[in-house]
Amino acid sequence: xxxxxxxxxxxxxxxxxxxxxxxxxxxxxxxxxxxxxxxxxxxxxxxxxxxxxxxxxxxxxxxxxxxxxxxxxxxxxxxxxxxxxxxxxxxxxxxxxxxxxxxxxxxxxxxxxxxxxxxxxxxxxxxxxxxxxxxxxxxxxxxxxxxxxxxxxxxxxxxxxxxxxxxxxxxxxxxxxxxxxxxxxxxxxxxxxxxxxxxxxxxxxxxxxxxxxxxxxxxxxxxxxxxxxxxxxxxxxxxxxxxxxxxxxxxxxxxxxxxxxxxxxxxxxxxxxxxxxxxxxxxxxxxxxxxxxxxxxxxxxxxxxxxxxxxxxxxxxxxxxxxxxxxxxxxxxxxxxxxxxxxxxxxxxxxxxxxxxxxxxxxxxxxxxxxxxxxxxxxxxxxxxxxxxxxxxxxxxxxxxxxxxxxxxxxxxxxxxxxxxxxxxx
Length: 426
Ligand SMILES: [Mn+2]
Fold this sequence. Notes:
Largest sheet: 8 strands, parallel
Number of strands: 10
Domain Xylose isomerase-like TIM barrel: 103-288
Shape: globular
Number of domains: 1
Radius of gyration: 22 Å
Number of helices: 15
Organism: Haliscomenobacter hydrossis (strain ATCC 27775 / DSM 1100 / LMG 10767 / O)
CATH topology: TIM Barrel
Bound molecules: manganese (II) ion
GO molecular function: isomerase activity; metal ion binding
CATH architecture: Alpha-Beta Barrel
Distance between the termini: 24 Å
CATH superfamily: Divalent-metal-dependent TIM barrel enzymes
Structural class: alpha/beta
Pfam families: AP_endonuc_2
InterPro entries: L-rhamnose_isomerase, Xyl_isomerase-like_sf, Xyl_isomerase-like_TIM-brl
Strand order of the largest sheet: 1-2-3-4-6-8-9-10
């Protein structure tokens, strides 16, 4: 935790510059017919879940470089997310990974969560690696496996995840499958799909009726010839097969280069099946970079689609779970997450600034240039003062990253947890 006074002190120093910039953008927006205060309120309401696996430096298969002071337990991970939320007031929940973060002392965890103003939004199952005490191996798949015993073990694990989640008042199970094949002929492609569908249906039927199952897709890796759920169409078909509370989860990094992700978002909202988002940035694939670091325009276009869908009464899409899913090996993870949340909120804020009536008119009239210019105008608006004001109004820092650095938090975490502490699970 950071002392409240420290954030106030930081904000006092930042206030004159912040006020000037805020007044400028408010004036610009008012002249355009927007209500800047209403936009700030919408930014305040937007909350993003932090994954429990993102608080330590991620590794690659080549190596891992610890930053020091990494959380050694679920309790310390909650403390780190609590700190992020205290600084930006925009990260009020945690996505929990099972079995890396199995809750042990549930009442104490609940108390700790309340103390930090946090909740557990979702539980994520893991059948992509074998655990020490596991009877059957997932080397050749889990929910798709040819052997019933392996499938049953994977189904039981997912049901166990739901049980852990229920204890902490979560309502979402996220399933991502590493299942697939590396070589032609390895899988009977149709049969492997059918086994997966039936396994997912078994898990679904064991979920409480107020729970949501999110089905995530990924085109390649760890399997390279075929993935059992490679694309949104397969996720969508599986959701339809298992039931109405199954929704597609879009992970930004789980697409081949140049995929039009905003169109996928639009399609899924049109079908009322977009249930969750995993934010990250990527250059090639699942490289888990900071959200908005590589393709900020694409992130904006995705939010443009989301905002348009959320504003359209004809769209019957459920509430979307907003989550970050990133963990790489270069930055201080807390700084990375602060940057990611800011990047997400900035993209959202820009999407709120699209003149939808004018855009609709340009589209109806096939005025290609005008339609594009309307989007560019919103994208090129400096929305940082609006995001900062949303955070300030909720008691957060005007500049969370600067406040984090000024308080020398990493140094104190290293002092407390050690130079070579390793985040559990990684
Ligand atoms: Mn993901």
